Amino acid sequence: MSNRLIGCRLELEGIELPEEMMNQTLEVLTTHESVRGFQKKPLPEGALKAILTAARSAPTSSNLQAYSIIIVTNEERKNRLAVLSGNQGFIKEAPVFLVFCADIYRLKYVTMRQGYQFAADTLEMFLLAAVDAALALQNALVAADSLGLVTVPVGSVRNDPNGMAEELGLPDGVFAIAGLSIGFEREGVRRGVKPRLPEQITVSHEEYSTKYLEEGLAEYDRVMIERRTYDGRRVSIAGEPEREGMEYGWCEHSARRCTRPEAIAASASLRENLRQILEQRGFSFQ
């Protein structure tokens, strides 16, 4: 197999790997693109089982398996989930929408079942469950991509945690971390593999380093501005006038996003109270 893969990150960044290292796994990983347009076409027989088996094979801390996956294929429910997730139309389009949840309900149940008192109400337990769910999602994404399907992770399932919990029947101790739309791509929706921050500023050797931070940020801004990545997607700041003549790249876009709590859609203001909502839903952050 050639190590010059069309449309992959290796080609995008000019990375040359030894021929003997290239394989289908690396090809799938380096060509992933989040696709937000789907055909009204069901998954091939056996595909969902393969994807779920891959998800369930992901690493899990201490084998606690503190996650759950909700499969949603009902059209009416997908429509409601799309509304709860910031009116994301592709959730309705995709034949399958998976919701990956941090789940300590099952662990609480098992602890009480065995005659003990659950005392793992800690920030560590929430992080453990969230990481377990994220790893399962990533495995599902890679498996789907390997089958010739397309995917897009959906963090906006956190926009309305209580609404999401009600719609999916989530008990206390179960929280929707992210969704994953899966299906066949609709023609004309691909935009190409998106550039990432330079390796020299996201990867350090032995110790954390900021040596190339400014150089790398400037380089990345140039790339994203040339690609016109943020055309029509500028983040406005209330009471802040537009800066005349300023080039709008990743740095400006990300900085504006960080001037307020994470909010992609109007309903995402609920994320400002996420800790309080999580505590109400059975998690603790001691």
TrEMBL record:
The keyword DNA-binding belongs to this UniProt entry's keyword annotation: no
Domain of life: Bacteria
Name of one Pfam family that matches: Nitroreductase
UniProt domain Nitroreductase: residue ranges: 31-183
Protein's UniProt keywords contain Disulfide bond: no
Signal peptide (from-to): none
Record keywords: Flavoprotein, FMN, Oxidoreductase
Protein name per the record: Nitroreductase family protein
Family affiliation: Belongs to the flavin oxidoreductase frp family.
